[in-house]
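Many introductory courses stop at the sequence. We go one step further.
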Amino acid sequence: MAKASLELDFSFPEPAEGEVDILVIAGEHSGDEHAARMIRSAMQQNPHLKIAAIGGHHMKEAGAQLLFDLIQYSVIGFVEVLKHYKIYKKIFEETISWIQRHMPRAICFVDYPGLNKRLARKLFDLGLARKAGGSLTMLYYISPQIWAWRAKRRFEMAKLFDSIAVIFPFEVETYGDTSLETRFVGHPFLADDYELPVQFDADGPILLLPGSRHSAVQRIAPVIFEAFHLCLRDRNKLQAICIYPSEAIKEQLALMLNKEDELRKHVRLVSNDKAISGRAVLTSSGTMSLNCALANIPGAVVYRTHPLTYLFGKALMKVPFIGMANIILREAMYPEFIQGAARPSVLCEQILECMENPDRIRSTRNLGAKLRDLLDKPRKGGPASWLLEKLG
């Protein structure tokens, strides 16, 4: 269904098999994938479970009845949201209407707090949620990052939801002063059917991961490219891989590389849907940095943004690190080079140390093992066990 051609008179289909046990709502690609793993595992444990979903094809393939493909809208920016306001309003209204008509036993909201919290508030205001006197069990999988900013959101979460499943162990304590039942269910990157997109290879290339958004790439890619370029002065056989998430980002990166012939010969652009291996990494602070840490790849985090954005974010952030592995471990597995500290000469030294210093490689491996222990599924089980328990 093309974005622009969506008719405003659409409606979600009726349940395929009568009553629905649970409706799962995920509005982004990652949420769709994580929810699909939860659904697949839950249905393996209870084949009679009836699940409907608003999300994407991953949940459909896992066995849920897909009511609406919401994922196709997840990449639209603010301007596009305004342009298609009537469509989004219709999606919201039809979701509420479908829930009112069919009243599943529970709703599980997955990540995507912008939409999911608005839906939850509406269901609460209508008196449908259990905490508002209704019958709907309200569940939330993958918490908003209240531990990093806007911590007071935890009180609204406690008001709306019956139980929340979190993917970082320290998140449990962030809800400790509320009445909200909070359970750590393990990180999806350690799920049985999840394969890390990166692997450590002592003889592999250097990985250069500048991020997935144009603004981040524009500020981070030049400095990590220049750092790698400096490394080539003494080690002219080095090769690097730079990952891109979209054709638009690929074009942006290619324009930068084309300005320097030597770099273009030594840096290969690879789509992020390909499995890759590397011996060291310079990475932005996003999701891929955690994948690299779990794969025991030595490296460093590079973060550069507009100075005003940085100052504003620094005032709001309540954590001492920006890299996910460092936040979880509460120590610097990956040294962080932020704003002006991210100089090519310093980052070049990081690349060389990650390649050649046995102590650095050994430390990365040890901290990677500690990280996996912290994030692994607890004895009570993963998200599927939590979901089934809350259904009763």
